[in-house]
Design a protein that fits this description.
270 residues; alpha/beta; Rossmann fold; eight-stranded mixed sheet; 8 strands; globular
Length: 270
Amino acid sequence: MKVTKLFINYQNQQTNALVFLPEIENGEKSEIKSTFAILTHGYTADKSSILNWPIRLAESGVSCILFDLPGHYLGNFSEVSDFNHFKLHAHELFYTAFLSLKSAFLEEFPLYEDKLESEQLKLVLGGHSLGAMLSLQALMLPEFKDYEKLSISVGLGMAPKDVVHLFDTPFYKSTLKIREQLVSPELKPDNVFPWIREQKEILEVHAQRIHLITGLDDLVVGNDGMERLAENLLNKENNVTMEKPSKLPHHEPQLAASYVKKFLKSIHWL
């Protein structure tokens, strides 16, 4: 495969991204799938945390872009100057990244423009944790309305209302003292966690295809957090499927790569 670096715009700044394009062998056009994957990471992490997702997909002919969220210092030193702007617009980076991937694809494969026609191209919007939630929001962007698309959301769920969530325990809060310094001050946990919790309750996602993947050992999502989220999404007429690997802890999202690939293969998207 070919890996190239590029930048995508966020307000008056840029954030980093990597494009993964499959390699053509023996001139076989069929090796290049009419499937794009746009992917991003979780809170306080960076694109390296799910690097093997696009690698596995590009090996199967899927063109991918993996981008860093703004204000996440492990991936880039951009800042989020206004948390309200981030809340309203961060999910739009999926479309910005899509345009960059489309441009890179055409530059590398100028004779394969027909694979990008909206009635043929399939879009995978995916991510881990915070990135997963943003991918769900991105499903409803009007710019994507003419494409067949789905979200693959890893490590995302809803906690029961009458139980203290892991994020609220003294132990977990103590571990965030360092991680909090790895993100822009506007993205501090006291801002981000309540917003994520609220968004999962009121997600305006309707009639979309969604695949949830959460490990049995994911302590952040919890025992039935994925199921609670699925129920909420099903109530909004979404097509929701779930997968629960025995080993996929929240801090090791790279382990989801084989499940992401297996699911896309099962629905004949690669």
